[in-house]
Amino acid sequence: xxxxxxxxxxxxxxxxxxxxxxxxxxxxxxxxxxxxxxxxxxxxxxxxxxxxxxxxxxxxxxxxxxxxxxxxxxxxxxxxxxxxxxxxxxxxxxxxxxxxxxxxxxxxxxxxxxxxxxxxxxxxxxxxxxxxxxxxxxxxxxxxxxxxxxxxxxxxxxxxxxxxxxxxxxxxxxxxxxxxxxxxxxxxxxxxxxxxxxxxxxxxxxxxxxxxxxxxxxxxxxxxxxxxxxxxxxxxxxxxxxxxxxxxxxxxxxxxxxxxxxxxxxxxxxxxxxxxxxxxxxxxxxxxxxxxxxxxxxxxxxxxxxxxxxxxxxxxxxxxxxxxxxxxxxxxxxxxxxxxxxxxxxxxxxxxxxxxxxxxxxxxxxxxxxxxxxxxxxxxxxxxxxxxxxxxxxxxxxxxxxxxxxxxxxxxxxxxxxxxxxxxxxxxxxxxxxxxxxxxxxxxxxxxxxxxxxxxxxxxx
Length: 461
Ligand code: ADP
Ligand code: MG
Fold this sequence. Notes:
The protein is of the alpha/beta class. The protein is 53% helix and 10% strand. It is globular, with a radius of gyration of 27 Å. Adenosine-5'-diphosphate (ADP) is lined by residues 129, 133-135, 140, 166, 168-174, 299, 327-328, 331. Residues 1-88 are annotated as: Domain I, interacts with DnaA modulators. Residues 158-289 form the AAA+ ATPase domain.
């Protein structure tokens, strides 16, 4: 079966991708309903898990319906055998979880689940999503502080339920897993059930079908901490909402902690029953805001360091400027750069980054305006925006102004006279002079050239 799965993947993704990411993947064995797949490095594991995890699981299910999960781990490699068969012994893979999984790195994930009689309730937790790896900044500090508090002392008054909300890819799931890891790893062996709202619904429907709703209710109500991710999924699913509402009440009344996430605040979740909405808003409601430039920088620095790859400051700044949508995309871009660097044994450079990420960057492109250029350049050289059009001729303002003119010529389709007008009604010959002067300086001074290049890339359409 494994050979067939590999074959299918190879066909689906093509030879190049297969060789790059999947060739070294081996099957360590099957543990219960989980197929354990190993790869030699943490980096490859992360990559395969996030890019091919779902596909692997689906292919396994087609082959062997007993397998419901696929775990991708760092592990010792066996020589790749072409005709590997499915009778691979379920040997002890002795996987080493990577260091990021602290404080649970000591135990392996499967063992934790197996030891927990109701562990079945919980979806597996991502070992990368811990408090250690969560980078805190202004946009998420409040949510982070609340999550920490709940992890330390579940079911404290005022923090129950904890309702986390925010846009896609901003760290809700990461924070929830971090809370779950922390509580599971803490004293008292608390029983934490984490699941998506979708999974909650499927479980509920399955219980209805098999007429085991009593069991469903009882087992759910026996958890100490219930975490339901992406609650917005329950909008329009009235029966499931109803069931969730009852579970919710029973648990809170019994002094158990509830943590819920959604893409909107309780009051904005239209289509959720009023009484549920009211109860959800009763504890602590914490939002995760869109990332700031500073937070994106810190995240990139942290992730590059964790991957052990040297990424130049200019590249980090460039990415933080360009990829502003969410952390997931930012991470994806960085991972791709790191992968290229690893594969080809080349250092990460600004040029390389632009080439490797051209498709992602294109999606973030927009037309650049002269105002933007002026603003960015003024910011960069720490001068006032008004000095872009002022008459001051001190070098400290004149040079940045020339840089801005140069960039305006390079990046927009404005004519020289037009550019001149936008820089305090200057003559077109002034602009022409600025353009050639900057080009000259760039020739002569590599550091200066790099500076201007960086600005250009940040602004570029
Ligand atoms: P959401 O559930 O809000 O859609 P996720 O929690 O899945 O977002 O986060 C998307 C990705 O971004 C994950 O890989 C996560 O680890 C990463 N991420 C998000 N916020 C942070 C952060 N503050 N520090 C480190 N990684 C983060
Ligand atoms: Mg999520």
